[in-house]
Amino acid sequence: MVPGDDVGEMCLLGAHQPELQGGVSGYTESQTTSSGKGLLQVEEVVLDTLKHLSPADGVFMVCRSKGGADAILDDQMGYVCWRDYSFEAELTVDRTFPSGVDFRNDSGTLRWTNPDTRYDFVKVMVRAGSLSQVQTHTGGSELYVGTGESVGASGANFGLFAIYDDYKATPTDTKDVSPVSIAYTP
Hints:
186 residues; mainly beta; three-stranded antiparallel β-sheet; Immunoglobulin-like; 3 helices; elongated; 35% strand; 11 strands
């Protein structure tokens, strides 16, 4: 039996963790390691990390199952517990370039929400012209280029494109362009 933990609940829920020196970038070691943390505390961090992987990252993760928590009493470490997990990951090797969303014309002001931030997003481009012209990032006339989320405009048809670059440098061409988002005023 471990003193102060007759049934082993500290390894499940976590126990008081002394502040250890030698942490990472301003955190104490007890904040950056799993030592002394309970299974449920570690599980929370793992699941939160997986939740932030999104299709924009080319990853879709699902926790398919988790087993019951098991524990043993070790002579040197006290109670040690674990749980089995089964994750399913769907990955894509296809390049995807998400466009801005909710593109609309609010009485002469074009508004949108930029795509999720990822390593290769550079800027958005708004094109103005006929409906057929604004279907491509080279058609019509350039109305706006930047990272903002609104621009004043007059006219009837607008196309919004998100521009990406693999190398995180100013692209010399716009081959990595999202599909168009269309806003028009009938």
